[in-house]
Design brief:
Blueprint lengths: L2 H7 L1 H18 L3 H15 L25 H13 L2 H6 L4 E3 L7 H20 L4 H17 L6 H25 L16 E2 L2 E2 H22 L2 E2 L9 E2 L7
Helix pairs in contact: 2-3, 2-4, 3-4, 6-7, 7-9, 8-9
């Protein structure tokens, strides 16, 4: 099989390769602290790659290289999503954000949020809702649970959810233009399989719920925070954008 045919027949793989390129380009233009932050968020998100199996058949049915049930595509997708998930807030609010110079995850908090999310997902799914609806609501409920310890980031989380929705849907539109058959991977079942401006409604809802949750997650686990008015923090501000 020649290269163009391989690219055409494996859109799930090559869309994520292109998204990885976007992550790397973004990282190059970030100051070191912000670069480390988004890359670590991507690596953390990779831990959830096995959840892709939850959506098989019910929500979508992608073709993976090698015909595996779980593939490199899922690892790339989770890394790309994790790395890009906070990018809108980092870009638009860079003058008001402070990123720890060494944004190492707080393991106990990371495990706590993971268990909280899993509990919400399980409880909502046992209520009889679809897996897609369950994970969307689990994002929202976990974000609400993190609202109290990171109330300072709540409004920013909502803004990031809206920003990531625009970013993610714009990327999807480009991919659907390059690979017109890609949209056929999604189920057409209502409500999440219905198309809105050519994009499955489930993808739009996921982008917002994930963007909201992920910003609060970054604040709680990796100490992303708003700069206090008039303060000079020892941490590196995202306002130092472009200085490497």
């Amino acid at each position: 099989m020649i290269l163009p045919e391989i690219v055409k027949s494996h859109p799930y793989l090559f869309t994520n390769v292109l998204s990885l390129g976007l992550v790397l380009i973004s990282a190059i233009h970030l100051p070191p602290a912000c670069r480390r932050l988004i890359l670590r968020l991507g690596l953390i998100m990779m831990l959830s790659s096995t959840f892709a199996l939850l959506f098989e058949r019910e929500y979508w049915h992608p073709i993976r290289a090698g015909g595996w049930a779980l593939g490199i595509e899922d690892l790339l997708f989770t890394f790309d999503s994790g790395a890009l998930g906070c990018l809108p807030a980092i870009w638009f609010f860079r003058r008001n954000l402070v990123v720890a110079e060494q944004p190492a995850p707080k393991i106990v908090r990371l495990l706590g949020v993971a268990m909280m999310s899993l509990c919400w997902l399980t409880v909502i799914w046992l209520m009889g809702l679809s897996k897609t609806t369950s994970i969307l609501l689990a994002h929202i409920m976990t974000a609400v649970s993190l609202r109290r310890p990171r109330f300072d980031l709540w409004a920013l989380g909502l803004a990031n959810g809206a920003g990531f929705t625009l970013l993610y849907c714009s990327i999807l539109r480009i991919y659907f233009w390059i690979w017109p058959d890609l949209v056929s991977y999604w189920s057409t079942s209502a409500p999440w399989g219905l198309l809105w401006f050519g994009i499955p409604l489930g993808e739009i809802a996921w982008a917002f719920s994930f963007g909201l949750f992920w910003l609060l997650f970054a604040g709680f686990v990796l100490d992303l925070r708003l700069r206090a008015c008039g303060s000079q923090s020892e941490s590196i501000q995202c306002a130092s954008w472009g200085r490497r």
